[in-house]
Amino acid sequence: MFRGKICSSEWIRSLRRDVFVTKLRHCSRNAIGVQTASDASINGDREEHELCNWDELKFSLTPTDYMYVMKCSSGESEFSQGHLTRYGNVELSPSSGVLNYGQGLLEGLKAYRGDDNRIRLFRPEQNALRMQMGAERMCMPSPTAEQFVGSIKQTALANKRWVPPPGKGSLYIRPLLLGTGPILGVAPSPEYTFLAYASPVGNYFIGSMHFSVQDKVYRAIPGGTGGIKSITNYSPIYKAVTQAKAKGFTDVIFLDAATGKNIEEATACNIFVAKGNVISTPPIAGTILPGITRKSIIEVASWLGYQIEERAIPLEELMNADEAFCTGTAIAIKPVGSVTYQGQRVEYKTGEGTLSEKLFRTLTGIQTGRIEDTMGWIVEID
């Protein structure tokens, strides 16, 4: 389990020493390909635009200054008041529930810098509600919506100089809910820790997405955890995704486990199919993650006059669609360039004038303040 301070005193001393001897102006890359933030920047004596080469920002980890930590101790059902601490490694018991039995949840949301230099969060209360839903499924206590949103605000503000300039990216915030108490038998953890850290990120994918359809490996099954953001949902599909990428595909589309005939979602994003004025997407029925970007696009598209259908979508319908696109926090909205199944490749419209491009401009306009938020989705923090 976590023992007192998140960062060791030796690490803090080393960090302070490095602050005075290191004067790096840009992000550097270590031997394993993780971007490392300049220690000199922690004192706040650098302007935002000097921290990184924002033009080369990718969707990879750049450690920032602070993370937020909150605990629920043994015998308690509510989380105590949390606090900010320097970003650093955490210490866990070898017998913690998250390490032994995968009792953990993750979330993901972004802070955006607008042309007016204000920093905005997009629907953070929806992430709070989704974490609560997942926690109930995983027999875990969860922070209240107020605690969750408050922690995200504090994390974003503490790392606000890492929010990229307008049009250069966003600050990705990753909340975690972990069973950190020691447990040997198969049972819920006796203690829990919530933490949130942040990293500036660029595009998850460049250009349109090219999918292969996976009909032998299933991402989720009825009655399982596909409808929540359990940390156990992702690594079981790494092999299928790795094999697809080795063949030149961007990602994989998974079919439903019950019939093997209907599309469900990709590795970490929801999928939409467009035909004429009708936009269709698989329904939320326990095997598909209730994406917040998905939910928002349904509302935006309805507002723009499109007919929305949430229903089972046979693979054949995807292969005959006019257009297809994916949604998610990491990717926002990405057009699907092609889908390949059993040697048959189908290509779709992408680029200027497409539905996905129109929806992308509308959604990102709301997120960054270029379009008035009439939905009450934006939380300004700066």
Automatic annotation (TrEMBL):
Keywords of the record: Amino-acid biosynthesis, Aminotransferase, Branched-chain amino acid biosynthesis, Pyridoxal phosphate, Transferase
Domain of life: Eukaryota
Molecular function, one GO term: branched-chain-amino-acid transaminase activity
Modified residues (N6-(pyridoxal phosphate)lysine): K229
Stated name of the protein: Branched-chain-amino-acid aminotransferase
One of the GO BP terms on file: amino acid biosynthetic process
Pfam annotation, one family: Aminotran_4
Family according to the record: Belongs to the class-IV pyridoxal-phosphate-dependent aminotransferase family.
Pathway(s) this gene product operates in, as recorded in its UniProt entry: Amino-acid biosynthesis; L-isoleucine biosynthesis; L-isoleucine from 2-oxobutanoate: step 4/4; Amino-acid biosynthesis; L-leucine biosynthesis; L-leucine from 3-methyl-2-oxobutanoate: step 4/4; Amino-acid biosynthesis; L-valine biosynthesis; L-valine from pyruvate: step 4/4
E.C. code: 2.6.1.42
InterPro entries reported for this sequence: Aminotrans_IV, Aminotrans_IV_CS, Aminotransferase-like, B_amino_transII, BCAT-like_C, BCAT-like_N, BCAT_family
Gene3D superfamilies: 3.30.470.10, D-amino Acid Aminotransferase, subunit A, domain 2
CC terms in the record's Gene Ontology section: cytoplasm
